[in-house]
Fold this protein.
Amino acid sequence: MFKSTRLTLVALLFSASALTATAEGFSPENPECIAPANPGGGWDFTCRQVGKSMQDQGLIEKTMQVVNLAGGGGGVAFAEVVNKRNDDNDLIVAASAATSTRLAQGAYPGNNMNEVRWLASIGADYGVIAVAANSEIADLTGLLDAMKNDPTSISIAGGSAVGGWDHLKVLIAANAYGIEDVRSVKYIAFDGGGEAVTQLLAGSVQAFTGDVSEAKGFVESGDIRVIAVLAPERLDGEFADFPTAREQGVDAIGANWRGFYAPGGMSDEAYEGWVEKIGALYASDAWKEVMATNGMAPLDLQGAAFQEFVANSVAQIESISREIGIIQ
Amino acid sequence: MSDRIFGVFGVLLAIGFAIAASLIQESFLSDAVGPKAFPYIIAAILGLSSAVIALRPDPEPIWPPLGQLIEILAAAVVMILYAQLLPVAGFVIATAFAAAYLSWRLGSTILGACLTGVGTSVGIYVVFHLVLGLSLARGPLGF
Amino acid sequence: METLSSLADGFAIALTWQNIGLALLGCFLGTIMGALPGLGPSNGVAILIPLAFTLGLAATPSLILLTSVYYGAMYGGRISSILLNIPGDEPAMMTCLDGYPMAKKGMAGEALSLSGISSFVGAFFATWGLILLAPQLVKIALLFGPAEYFALFALAFMTLGGVSSTNQAKSAFAAALGLGFAMIGVDTQTGVPRFTFGEVHLYDGLDFLVAIVGLFALSEVFIFLENRHGEASAKGKTIVIGRLTPPLSMLKACTPTMLRSSFVGFIAGVLPGAGASLGSFLSYSLEKRMVDKDGTFGTGDPRGVAAPEAGNNAAAGGALVPMLALGVPGSGTTAVLLAVLLSLNITPGPLLFANNPDVVWGLIAALFIANFMLLALNIPMVGIFTRLLLVPPRVLMPIVAMVSFVGIYGISGSSFDLLVMIGFGLLGWVLRKFDVPLVPIILGTLLGNAMENNLRRAITIDNGNWWTLIDSPLAIGLWVVAIIGFILPLFFARKVKSGMQRGDAEGSIKD
């Protein structure tokens, strides 16, 4: 959860300065954002900063009330919105790839993604696979070959739980490379990407899976080497050196998106109003600059397009999870 | 005697914990140790230490008379009601009542208890909500 | 020296009127948050982040404000530990053990100012450690793989016996209970739910704040309710506040303790995942082993107050080392601070000292300023804090209970957490009756998951080979210390006991 904090927060802060757009029509009376986690987590920052930026730019008149509703990896908040707040027009809820992963794996018991309305995205972060700078492994195929020959010889560290997004990224790559039994892949779950990178440096593990933002500092210092970025094309700017998995013949893509959903019974007018407001927030120049410096990829989806994107993402994760046996 | 009962209860708790651990659904995708091993170790320590407590008891604690036990249970019930009513009645009202009850049972006069209740409630509302910006339960009256 | 001139530059950046004002504000708010049960340093910092943004502060002033809050909360936690026997935050838990007995003996003022001075010493040395050793210390963190972390946690639990109770079996029971609570929730290694009984609220596990506030604060309320009827007899006794500053002889006696504890705490802080609670715990148990010849620890020994306070504040400084140099938060609070740094477009990591020297040295200078300010703020305020003891329980206890509820509800927004907290309150009351120590329960809840995860990581990395746990010199060293720490007290306890029994036997012969 923590990792989704970083870029969102960066992006939102910087966006605060340059926005001028104002939304017409719908204006929430008591705007409220549920962060499905404790203060300090990624979703919490998403809420607090979007709320503040929106108010600064005059997109909303009153202060956005941020409510923390932790539990069940977002499941408690999801159930609360569906069951008790279903027709609330003033409410939005922070979400990310972690939300769609849990929805896909049935980790919100009794709930599915169609019970809420998906508003808009505010960016994405592509996955990377990295090794220590002095590693003998030269590229992604080298790593995958080693895993194919002797799965016990390679431990891969990541910041999410088993079956979580960091783990799935490796499995997507392994699957694409033709490793039949992806369950033999040795994934070690750590509490956050930073801890996982540290263990890579300490030599406890052989490879790291995470986001561009997590690897950035260590790549610059020359401690680790990115052997693949799971993006369709090479990233811009300082990240252009990272080879994509695709150009190495491994057709694997993994993006961690961030955005919001709203109650399922929200009126169309309110829905359109929120979509427009988040869209205006996303469209500022300062935002694009931040995305470039952080290796964050644009993901400009609002309204119906975003709804479809989340649906596809849930379906994809569900099929992968089923294939590798995380869910039956 | 109390410690012996406590120790036996602890052993039962350890057994229950181990049984609950054995019922954990192993997922397809497991690590070398699995999700059950550590709980088993804990259950073993829990059981062993409970057995020692049962076999070598400390001196008897002083148990309160029935009246005070009821007093404690009543306070717990009030707190449970408070937890349930908080989202319904709103923070300020619910808190004022609960604080007044506790103050009354701790020996305040009725008037003193009411003052303590209202003071506590409003004071906390100002510090936590208005100054620190925490979201507290909003009642029908907006506070 | 290059370091000193950089530090001077840092002070030049930090010492503006605005920054000093922010540091003062941060210290004050932090102290209050630390003292309130339910709000600790990590929540305190998280809650005040919007304030920093609302004020439109630049990077350095924001960091100065938030680190002042961080250090302030570390100072503030001791206040309610000493005065009410309720830890204001989790690292202050160990301060209850001797701080509250001191207050009961009429030495509340001395305990508060002594702990303030110890906090200062711990934080002061930790800040110097951060300046002089940060690049080298990172190497220590890299020596710790999963197996070594497991050994470290085992060390903490094995030296637990006798620290907080005279009955080792009850300490072990409490620790196992705490570890058991930690197991509740979705297993982070495999994603299967454990001990949740289908309750979605339990999927994320129990929040240790809920446990700590329930076990300490609510059970205290229940104890007062139980004893109310006996109040008449106790009323004749006037409350003694005593002197406000410790005598020089006490400070002198505590100085070696403070220095040792600062060192232990600092190292614990440097290790990501160990943190301030482990720092204060290890400092206390080490001091008890080293200097507690007469068994006065736990009955109001000033050294028992100095040790955990120096330890936890040193750990707070130590935790900044991996955060700044590796981008790895060593505690919940540094995780929040890390997010703030990132939000200010500063990437902590190996290059931070080279790329953003102004931020690093400004931050370090701010730590010094906050530390001196807290000392200056805390010592005169001891007199005000101790007045709290004069508030009658019938007013004070409802406030304590309600602040506990609000602290928890305001953070999680969940009535379910409140019910769990009430359950912990009743449990705490029963366990106190049985003389079962509460500290090991909290330690178990805090460290249980990290301990299990590191065990499983170590063994998974080595393909199911359990011998990997004692495969490095460091791990073996830690295990040796742990085993000695576990066996020695058993041996001594028997010796002392048999000595006492012999004394009894002689006595009975004389009769």
Summary: The longest helix of chain C spans residues 473-510. The first strand of chain C starts at residue 185 and ends at 186. Strands of chain C lie at 185-186, 193-194. Residues 232-237, 497-511 of chain C have pLDDT under 50 and may be disordered.
